[in-house]
Amino acid sequence: MTTELLKASSEGKSLNKDAPLAPVQVPAAVAEILAATPIIDIHTHLFAPAFGKLSLWGIDELLTYHYLEAELFRSSTVTPERYWTLSKSAQADLIWRTLFIENTPISEATRGVVAVLKAFHLPTNAAALPEARAFFKSQSFESHILRVLQLAGISDIVMTNDPLDPEEFPLWLKGVEPPRQFHAVLRLDRILNAWPAHWQAVVAQGYSVDAQASGKSISEIRRFLADWAKRMNPVCMACSLPDSFAFPSDSMNGRLLAEAVLPACRELNLSLSLMIGVRKQVNPRIGLAGDAVGRANLMALENLCRDFPDNRFLVSVLSRENQHELCVYARKFNNMLPFGCWWFLNNPSIVEEMTRERIEMLGTSFIPQHSDARVLEQVIYKWANTRRTIGPILAESYRLLSEDGRGVTRADIERDVTRLFRSNAEAWLPLRSRT
Ligand code: RAT
Ligand code: ZN
Fold it and tell me: Does the global pTM surpass 0.85?
């Protein structure tokens, strides 16, 4: 190494963006570029402030996240029935005492709360929560959001918007306008997975549909979707699906998907995001924490991608056992884009395994992660964890490449990180400006 190169490597910088980096420089360069690249968070359950109480933030919401509630019931004698009668702050106090004082918070979800407290310079091992509560109470939500986005290193938040949610749809009808950082997604779970329970809500919004989706129902559902797309300006349509999802199928789900949703996506030029593999409410006593996972038969996806080449599918599968097949299908069908390490997969050990496999099989043609945040400040820890886990995997890929004969430049790394965390999202989810 020349003296100049040695000096540059000890400073962790390259002299020239287009000159190959010395292997020793690569890990630091990857970490720097990951830190400096604003991420598009393509799936969250966050809401802009205009959505009022749907928009969750602060310590009590962080502590009562359903990932932590699941852990509470493993370490406390409180019954779910008793827990649900407590006020939000009493629930948060109980979770704090149980998981953070009486136990060491080493699980992914508990460590996340610790990282958020640290980000705001709040005590991470206090006996109780008055200081944290006072801090969040003193923030103005609008400026707090900007600070959180900056701390998380994200530029855009993609929401989950259900046109049949009784708390949400009236806000859209009143003309709610999310600010430019927030983007809508037209979520279809109630329609596709529970039509018998929800068709009347579609009727109540002025559409002629019936329980069997017969007669003009299908064209009315398409009109419903087109009207909602106009109102929400969504970046895609989306649905979570059970492990038993099959396609094609004579079921209501199969018919509505083939005859209403896929044609509507084509007409409106929107991708469809499919999240496959959830086993809803295996334990209803614990509410949102009561969903589980099952291995899906991805022939359904093969059939969709092949038979609907003019539709585009973003796909996340919940079962670890389905991940390799998903990569294989992505190699067969370029109208499918794998995304995220979803829900129970968002732990370093599994993110590491999945991301390595995806890079090996797909290069940079996938979206590595989404946060699934439900409470604003969660994006801080979830994205820090993603950067921390994925940085070394990318660096290792470059090490192998360089061993095989091709060094990488800073410009290469910037292009790859931008593609993974921004451009793939921009190509599949047009983040339209609302101004
Ligand atoms: O990760 C979660 O919070 C889950 O409860 C689900 O919301 C899931 O991500 C989904 O979008 O259905
Ligand atoms: Zn989600």
Answer: yes
Residue 244, amino acid: S
Domains present along the chain, CATH in parentheses = 32-55+154-428 (3.20.20.140), 59-137 (1.10.2020.10)
**Residue 237 host element (H or E):** strand 236-242
Please indicate whether residue 372, judged by its CB atom, sits closer than 6 Å to ligand 1: yes
Please choose from 162, 240, 276 the residue to mutate so as to test ligand 1's pocket, defined by most ligand atoms within 8 A of CB: 240
Tens-digit pLDDT profile for residues 19-36: 999 999 999 999 999 999
Q: Which residues, including other chains, have CB under 8 Å from residue 342's CB and lie 6 or more apart? A: 275, 316, 317, 318, 370, 372
Contacts of 277 (CB under 8 A, 6+ apart): 241, 242, 243, 293, 294, 295, 296, 317, 318, 319, 322
Q: Is the CB of 316 under 6 A from ligand 1?
A: no
Tell me how far the alpha carbon of residue 372 lies from the centroid of ligand 1, in angstroms: 6
Q: Ligand 2: distance of its center to the CA of 12 in Å? A: 37
State which residues have CB under 5 angstroms from ligand 2, the bound ion: 372
For residue 17, the model assigns a pLDDT of: 87
288 Cβ inside 6 Å of ligand 1 = yes
